[in-house]
Design brief:
- The structure is a single chain.
- The protein is an alpha+beta fold.
- It has 13 helices and twelve strands.
- The strands form two sheets. Strands 1, 2, 4, 5, 6, 7, 8, 9, 11 and 12 form a ten-stranded mixed β-sheet that branches. The chain has a two-stranded antiparallel ribbon with strand order 3-10.
- Helix 2 crosses helix 10.
- It starts with a helix and ends with a helix.
Length: about 400
C-alpha cells in the first residue's frame, strides 16, 4: 500500500471512529494538560528563583540591635572595602511603606536607586526609556506594573502623596510604569532616587538599610566571611548560599505538590488505558477479520493501527502542549498558580517567564506514547495472530 492510500485509510478510520476516540482522547488530553502545565509552572518558578539568586550579592551586611533590624552606618563601607578580595561595596536604601485602610492595611516596597549607576543591571532595566531631565525636574518615581494597578484602583493616576516620618506630605509623580517581567519582580515596588527614598523612609544621611558586598573569587568566600564577622559585633552577615537555601526550601515544598499532581495524573492515565485496552480487544475481532479476509497480512494490519494510534497520540500531545502554553503564559495559570504559590502569597497577576525543559517534555511524551500505542496494538496483534475462522466464530 502506498503512502497516500495509507494516509487516506488512517484518516477515514479516525473519522469513522471519532465518537469512540473523542471520549478517551478528551480525558487523556486533560490529564496531559494538567501534567504539562504543572511541569512548565514548576520550571518557570525554578527559573525565576535562580535568576533572583544570581542577581544577589555574595554577602548582605545589616546591623542588628537587640535582635531587631536597625539602620546600618555608612561608615562601615570603608572598613568593609579595606578587606582584600572584595570588588564592590554598595549601600542599599529600601523599605516598606504602610497605607492605612479602613478594613485592612496595605503595603508596598520603596527601593532607592542611583539613576546614573550604569554598572547596575537593575538600574539599567528600570531607567531605560526615562527622561532623566524631566525625572529630576520634580519628585518622580518608577512603578512596577502591580503597584501602578494598585494605586490606580485608589484613584492615583499620575502621582502619590507620601507622608514622611516627620508628618510632611511629599507628592511624587509617576515617571514610568515597568512592563511585566516575571512574577518575582512584578510586586508592588516603587523605584525612587536614593535621597528622596531616605526622606520618605526616614533613613538618616549617614545610614542605609544594608550593605551589599561582592567578591572577586568565590573560593575566598569563607575567609572573607570570617573577616566580615570580626569587623562588627552587631552585624548580621547573610550569604548568597543562605539565600539559595531559603529559595530552594520554597521550591522543594512546591515540588511536592507537583509530585502529587503527577501521581494522580499517572493513575488516571493508567486507568484510561486499561479501559481502552478492553474496548480495543472487544472491537478488534470483527475489524481484523475483515482485513484478513481481503488479503491483508498481520504485518499490514499492525502497521495500519500503529500509524493510526501514532497520529492520534501526536495530535493529543500537541493540543495539550498548546493549551498548557496558553493557560500558563497568556492567562497566568489561574487555580494552578494558587496551588503552587498560595493565593495570599502574592497580590498581583503572576507573569511567569518562559522556561522549557526539553528533556522533561520528551520524557513525558515517551511515557505517554508507548503505553498509549501499546493499548491499541497489543489487542490488535492478539486477534490478528489467531486463526481467522476462530475469530469469525
Amino acid at each position: 500500500m502506498n503512502k497516500v492510500a495509507l494516509f487516506n485509510l488512517i484518516t477515514k478510520n479516525i473519522y469513522k471512529d471519532k465518537r469512540e476516540h473523542l471520549g478517551a482522547s478528551t480525558v487523556i488530553f486533560l490529564v496531559l494538560f494538567i501534567l504539562i502545565s504543572s511541569l512548565w509552572l514548576s520550571n518557570s518558578i525554578k527559573s525565576d528563583i535562580q535568576s533572583e539568586i544570581n542577581a544577589q550579592s555574595d554577602f548582605i551586611v545589616q546591623r542588628f540591635i537587640g535582635g531587631t533590624k536597625a539602620q546600618t552606618p555608612m561608615r562601615w563601607i570603608e572598613k568593609i572595602d579595606s578587606i582584600k578580595g572584595i570588588i564592590s561595596v554598595q549601600p542599599r536604601i529600601y523599605g516598606t511603606y504602610l497605607i492605612k485602610g479602613i478594613d485592612q492595611d496595605s503595603y508596598f516596597d520603596i527601593v532607592g536607586i542611583d539613576l546614573f549607576d550604569d554598572e547596575n543591571p537593575l538600574v539599567k532595566k528600570v531607567v531605560k526609556g526615562v527622561d532623566l531631565k524631566r525625572f529630576f525636574k520634580r519628585d518622580s518615581m518608577i512603578l512596577s506594573n502591580a503597584l501602578s494597578r494598585f494605586l490606580k484602583d485608589r484613584h492615583y493616576d499620575s502621582y502619590y502623596n507620601f507622608i514622611t516620618p516627620s508628618g510632611n506630605i511629599k507628592r511624587v509623580y509617576f515617571a514610568k510604569v515597568l512592563d511585566k517581567d516575571s512574577f518575582i519582580w512584578d510586586k508592588r515596588v516603587a523605584f525612587i532616587d536614593g535621597d528622596l527614598a531616605r526622606e520618605i523612609l526616614g533613613i538618616a544621611d549617614d545610614k542605609c538599610t544594608d550593605i551589599a558586598v561582592s567578591i572577586a573569587n568565590s573560593a575566598e568566600k569563607s575567609n572573607i566571611l570570617s573577616k566580615l564577622k570580626s569587623l562588627f559585633f552587631d552585624a548580621k552577615i547573610t550569604t548568597k548560599d543562605e539565600i539559595q537555601k531559603a529559595y530552594q526550601n520554597f521550591y522543594d515544598f512546591k515540588s511536592s505538590i507537583f509530585l502529587l499532581l503527577f501521581l494522580l495524573s499517572t493513575t488516571a492515565f493508567v486507568l484510561i488505558l486499561y479501559q481502552r485496552y478492553d474496548s480495543a480487544l472487544s472491537k478488534a475481532s470483527q475489524e481484523v477479520a475483515i482485513y484478513r479476509m481481503v488479503g491483508w497480512s498481520i504485518k499490514d494490519i499492525i502497521k495500519l493501527k500503529l500509524f493510526e494510534s501514532l497520529v492520534l497520540a501526536v495530535i493529543i500531545f500537541a493540543l495539550s502542549f498548546i493549551a498548557s502554553y496558553i493557560y500558563l503564559y497568556i492567562f497566568g495559570a489561574p487555580l494552578l498558580s494558587d496551588i503552587f504559590l498560595g493565593e495570599k502569597n502574592y497580590f498581583f497577576t503572576p507573569h511567569f517567564s518562559l522556561s522549557v525543559d526539553a528533556k522533561t517534555l520528551i520524557t513525558v511524551f515517551i511515557i505517554f506514547i508507548i503505553p498509549y500505542i501499546a493499548s491499541i496494538i497489543v489487542p490488535i496483534w492478539r486477534v490478528a495472530s489467531r486463526d481467522i475462522k476462530e475469530v469469525l466464530r
